Amino acid sequence: MTKEFDHQLFINGQFVPASDDAQFDCIAPATGELLCRVAAASETDVDRAVSAARATFSYGVWRNAPVSQRKQVLLKLAQLVETHAEPLALIESMDTGKPLRDARTIDIAGSVQMIRWFAECLDKLYDEIAPTDHPIVAQIRRTPLGVIAAVTPWNFPLLTALTKIIPALAMGNSVVLKPSELSPLSALYFARLTLEAGLPHGVFNVITGNGEVAGRALGMHMDVDALLFTGSTATGKRFMQYSGLSNLKKVSLECGGKSANIVLDDCPDLERAVAATANGIFFNAGQICNAGSRLILQRGIAAEFKQKLISQLDRFRPGDPMEDGTTLGSMISVAHANKVRGFISEAQREGARILAQGPVFNAPEGLDAQAWVQPTLIDNVSRHMQIAQEEVFGPVLAIMEVDSAAQAITLANESIYGLAAAIWTKDMRVAHMAQQNLHSGFVWVNSVRAGHIATPFGGVKQSGFGRDKSLHAFDNVSYLKTTWYDYS
User: Fold this and answer.
1) Cα–Cα dist 94/76, whole Å
2) Which residues pair with 142 in a beta bridge?
3) Secondary structure string (H, E, C) spanning the chain
4) Which among 92, 181, 254, 401 is annotated as catalytic?
5) Tell me, what's the pLDDT at 171?
6) Which domains are assigned to the chain?
7) Separation of alpha carbons 461 and 439, rounded Å
8) Do the bridges between strand 136-144 and strand 128-130 make them parallel or antiparallel, or are there none, so unpaired?
9) CA angle 267, 396, 427 (to 5 degrees)
10) What percent of the chain has pLDDT over 70?
11) Which residues does the chain have with pLDDT short of 70?
12) 254 an active-site residue?
């Protein structure tokens, strides 16, 4: 099936094989089918891509292009992604195992919105003038950094990549993207669209391959000015080390999470909270960094809430990702599914119990049932259990009970992560107290996993410190330059 997919490296506007012709298998997790063999970049290939990006940046064909021109190219790119939505969604579904319907309505639709929003920001970013003494004028302006490397994950391959790529391109930088080796195909399809949109050669490059080779080479490269990363905390820490060992490149990290979802006795709408809780952990088979994976219930509503939550499990129906009725796709791989099942077994060994699970998937011929994990509610969880502390990245909800809001907030903060947290209460004094004391980058009040492109997304503690989306995304890909004009 190789001919059906772009599968080579994209360097300086051309698809090229790896310098040593190395390749890796790209597997459809839902079926176990070999989709194609994809070029595996070496350090030499990474250097080729970075050199092309640097040359284009230095030449200035994109960096010095008028803002109106960059905006129009990005808007055309958005239109092209929208026009190619169906093949992109199909690729995303095959490559990750997620339902095709979700790939269409969330991944690709969100990608179009992402490009358009940042394109529209371009002619609305103003410089600053500092209040200095006359006749001095001190101008402060955002300036593109140069060559931006982006290393992105497999759960929302194109959408997450664009949170890095588009602000970087909008600012006038050149970009080298390394998508996850588990889901590289949409990035390569997108690369072809950048040419049609009019992006100059060398401004955008895609390096596919193993993280330990291609990712490390980008992290250690002396000519990469910034590295933007979404993925595991362990890998994020390595990129911090690479920066210190190389050229002190700017690093932006969006890493793991173990988000707490607190429901108090005075929850204003129990039915809505239950539905949001289920969506917050089971959507995308739980493979979401800000999934509400810890449910903290005040005891007064705990029993009722759990019974209502059990009734939600049937909403997440495993099935063929290509069929519209499927609401629970496969995990990214059988290996990852086995890892998630290992968390469930360990929770039971430590004394927690399975409260309920979704339906067993009797997979028809052509699908691999081992790639699916049942949505699972784990009850009687204590704060020190593995299931309460480590990121599972699957459809597994750890349930704990407390007596008060204060106890809930303390428990929520007992984590190495600080990506997001939620609290359900009708008392706005309690909500305000909670948002002040919850140590996380995002706090939801009476909602879970809500957001908007205009709001920054990122965490604290070992969830990292970068910010995607919103105008703050430009902070990752620019620096502030002060120009001092002395007219005396």
Assistant:
1) 26
2) 480
3) CHHHCCCCEEECCEEECCCCCCEEEEEECCCCEEEEEEECCCHHHHHHHHHHHHHHHHHCCCCCCCHHHHHHHHHHHHHHHHHCHHHHHHHHHHHHCCCHHHHHHHHHHHHHHHHHHHHHHHHHCCCEEECCCCCEEEEEEEEECCEEEEECCCCCHHHHHHHHHHHHHHHCCEEEEECCCCCCHHHHHHHHHHHHHCCCCCCEEECCCCHHHHHHHHHHCCCCCEEEEECCHHHHHHHHHHHHHCCCCEEEEECCCCCEEEECCCCCCHHHHHHHHHHHHHHHHHCCCCCCCEEEEEHHHHHHHHHHHHCCHHHCCECCCCCCCCCECCCCCHHHHHHHHHHHHHHHHCCCEEEEECCCCCCCCCCCHHHCCCCEEEECCCCCCHHHHCCCCCCEEEEEEECCHHHHHHHHHCCCEECEEEEECCCHHHHHHHHHHCCCCEEEECCCCCCCCCCCECCEECCECCCECCHHHHHHHEEEEEEEEECC
4) 254
5) 98
6) 2-255+464-484 (3.40.605.10), 260-454 (3.40.309.10)
7) 8
8) antiparallel
9) 15
10) 99
11) 1-3
12) yes
Residue 341: count of CB within 10 angstroms of its CB? 17
Q: Are 12 and 201 within 8 A, CB to CB? A: yes
- pTM over cut 0.85: yes
Which tokens belong to 370?
A: 């081992």
pLDDT one-digit tens code per residue, 39-87: 999 999 999 999 999 999 999 999 999 999 999 999 999 999 999 999 9
Q: Is residue 378 within 8 Å of residue 354, measured between CB atoms?
A: yes
Sequence-distant (6+) residues with CB within 8 A of 38 are 7, 8, 23, 24, 25, 26, 181, 184, 185, 188, 208
User: What is the token pair recorded at 470?
Assistant: 């919103």
Q: What is the CA radius of gyration of the chain?
A: 23
> 65 — alpha (psi -120 to 50), left (phi > 0) or beta?
beta
Q: How would you classify the pairing of strands 204-206 and 174-178?
A: parallel
In the chain, the amino acid numbered 179 is: P
Q: Is 289 a catalytic residue?
A: yes
| Burial of 371 per CB tally in 10 Å (0-12, 13-18, 19+) | buried
Pull the structure tokens for residue 115. Answer: 């490009």
| Token couple for 178 | 């390394």
Residue 235 amino acid letter:
T
| CB-CB neighbours of 77 under 10 Å | 25
